[in-house]
Amino acid sequence: MAPTVVIVEDDATIASSISSYLKKLGIEVLVTQRTEEARSWLKEHRIKLMIVDCLLPGESGVDFVQSIRKQFPAPVMDVILMSGIFVEPHFMKESIRATQAVAFLKKPFDLEELKTSLGSFQQLGKGPSPRKALYSVYNNPNMTAREYRRVVELLEDLHGFDLPFIYLFLQSSRISGHLNIISPDDRVSGITFSSGFIVHVDLEDSKTHLGKLLIESGFILPDDLESVLSMKSSKRIGERLIQSQMLSPHGFEIVLANQMSIRLSRTILDETLRVNFVASEVELTKPRVDETILLKFVHDWIASKVTVDWLRAHFTPWGNSILVKGPHFRLNHPAFSSQLLVNSPTLIEEALNTTSLNELLEKSEIPEETLLKSIHFLICAGVIVMREKPQERSLADQQKHIKNVQQQFHGKNQLEIYDLMVRMTTASEQNPMQVFNEFMLLLGRPPTDKVLAQVYGEIKKQAENTYETVRTGSHLKLKDELAKQEIENKIKSSNLFEQAKGHLNKASFGQALKILERVHKLDPKFDKVPIYLIWAKLGNAENAPNRGQVLKEVEADMLSVAPEDKFDALFHYVTGLYQKAKGDTQQARKNFEKAAAMDGSFLPARREMAVLAASNKPKQDIFNQDLKTLVGSLFQRKK
Q: Which residues, at least 6 apart from 168, have a Cβ–Cβ distance to it below 8 Å?
């Protein structure tokens, strides 16, 4: 549904003039002189801008805007005030402050003055929503750099899982500038691009302080760091270490690159974000993330971080689209050799030979999670694109679409359903009416088929109940209850996790596995649980009859480990266990040694090194030993 501009003006000539001008810009317009009618339109339409006269019959324009601001705050809807009588500077200033208006126009005004005040709203009626335009960008190979930049500049709210697409898109467009990412608690992160490279990641994160990473990577010792930090110098820590010959320039670049990759990965969060992009000239510096490296990162983020629930909701509006070759499609594209695609070798052929995305999801034998993640990865890389069908949905397509929504709603509480409705639409979660209206547009017309019409009615009823609950604020109590439950789950998970670690250290792998599975169910985001689950599975399967099947499961589980968790001793240790289970003792030893070097107190790694060392010693034949050696060895055993 295209956003609409409402004009509230009692002068028919002025209203008609503004309306005609906006319609020429491709903007949908509604005109009224009554504030009550404007209020009713707020319930029925996606209003993004109101142009309001200050002197109206029965109610002042300023009072009217103030009365609707609680439900439609400034981030949701802009307001332009206008007046030909109340034009004193003090009144104008106070009116803008009271209504949070973006502009105040003194009548009579030139329409070009209105155009300046409209800003980004000049594009309101021209094409899809900003987020949908983002995912359609590869459908137009002839876009200019300015148009690429415009796609990002028009974005409002988006999800942390949208960032992999944005990063690859900005890199492939060769735009230079700064992408600012604002979290719900107003933390700001910054990603700097220089002509197709990421050259800087600004993120407040104590876990990626340079000194800590240098120690963990084995480049310096804690004493070296303390010694350098005690120096009186204006130089940065890396320069001091290199100058003191405690660190090589090459080693320093490696750690800086690791720091950048970890910080970049930490921006991919399961939460709503705001972004803005500022284009500027940026120097190309080192270290930097090029297209090959970023593609690998994006693959790992989608495999380990992006949830299947988010992907289902994300693809719902595109269910009737066909998948076609994108601008970056080529048979030797590195995306095809990634682990996700190796695990689903028939995907690309299936994708390009189905009539819709919903048909692919229904008929493919590839597991749903692998299928959705693989498709999303290829779309992010521009290898394939989604192209909407111009015609209306057939009954078969409508059936797939409605059943898809039904499955996503199944078993969800009203908070979860509202979250799904927000993700499926492009509406702001702060505007329940807008969310509901756009969801109903997405759901489509009621079907003629009686059975399907009943399912449609049930979904509509759930959406209506959810809207009413959120609109009246009744959901806040449920939100508080769920927050308390989440805290209780975290405490319970933490206690269980400590028990599981104790069982792992005692080699009680079966017990550890059961407890860790409970932890993962209680709190799927619990830190490093996927790695500990792999450890328990490998230990439990050591002498199991289904060992081969477990190793296949573990190979898939390795994809679920977040990239930032691959830089510590635990991951290298578990990787060593996996390699040892496959019979690759040489690589296993290297990973155990790396784990021990990164954390000298990590005893399991040292234990495995000792086991491998002992297994490589040649067995002694007591019948061919001389008497002195034989007697000596017997006394040593007795001790």
A: 294, 295, 298, 380, 381, 382
Q: What is the CATH number of domain 484-616?
A: 1.25.40.10
CATH architecture of 4-123: 3-Layer(aba) Sandwich (3.40)
Query: pTM here?
Result: 0.75
Helix (H, G, I), strand (E, B) or coil at 418: helix
Give which of 553, 548, 500, 550 is closest to 523, Cα–Cα: 500
Q: How confident is the model at residue 638 (pLDDT cuts 50, 70, 90)?
A: very low
Residues 6+ apart with CB under 8 A from 160: 267, 268, 269, 270, 271, 272, 273
Strand order in 157-159's β-sheet? Answer: 157-159, 272-279, 177-182, 188-194, 197-202
Q: Which whole-number Å values give the CA distances from 213 to 252, 260, 300, 546, 570, in the listed order?
A: 10, 11, 21, 39, 15
The per-residue pLDDT for 167 is 96
Amino acid, single-letter form, for residue 141: P
Query: What's the CA gap between 625 and 547, in Å, rounded?
Result: 39
Amino acid letter at 395? L
Amino acid at 594: K
- How far apart, in whole angstroms, are the C-alpha atoms of residue 421 and residue 316? 10
Dist CA 335 CA 338 (whole Å): 5
For the chain, the domains span 4-123, 130-291, 292-386, 392-473, 484-616
Within 8 A by CB and 6+ apart from 587, the residues are 576, 579
CA 548 centroid distance within chain? 34
For residues 166-198, one letter each, b for 16 or more C-beta atoms within 10 angstroms of the residue's C-beta and e for the rest, the string is bbbbbbbbebbbbbebeeeeeeebebbbbebbb
Tokens of 186: 């107003």
Residue that wins the pLDDT comparison between 33 and 481: 33
Q: What are phi and psi of 615, to 5 degrees?
A: -70, -20
CB 279 within 8 A of CB 318: no
Element holding 398 (H helix, E strand): helix 395-409
- Whether the per-residue pLDDT at 3 is higher than 70: the answer is no
Please say whether the beta carbons of 380 and 165 come within 8 A. yes
Q: Does residue 639 register a pLDDT over 50?
A: no
Contact 52, 64 (CB under 8 A): yes
> Under 8 Å CB-to-CB from 223, ≥6 apart: which residues?
none
3-state DSSP assignment of residue 198: strand
Q: Six-digit token pair at 578?
A: 């996996």
pLDDT at position 1, please? 46
Length of the chain: 639
Q: pLDDT tens digits, residue range 171-198? A: 998 989 999 998 888 888 999 999 989 9
Q: Please state, in angstroms and rounded to a whole number, the distance separating the CA atoms of residues 157 and 127.
A: 18
Question: pLDDT of 233-275, one tens digit each?
Answer: 778 777 888 888 888 888 788 888 888 899 999 999 999 898 8
Residue 75's pLDDT band, with cuts at 50, 70 and 90, is low
The pLDDT of residue 197 is 95
Q: Write out pLDDT tens, residues 333-381.
A: 999 999 999 988 999 999 999 989 999 999 999 999 999 999 999 999 9
By 3-state DSSP, what share of the chain in percent is helix, strand and coil, each rounded to 5?
60, 10, 30
Q: Given the DSSP bridges, would you call strands 188-194 and 197-202 parallel, antiparallel or unpaired?
A: antiparallel
DSSP annotation of 187: -
Backbone φ and ψ for 436, nearest 5 degrees, come out as -65, -45
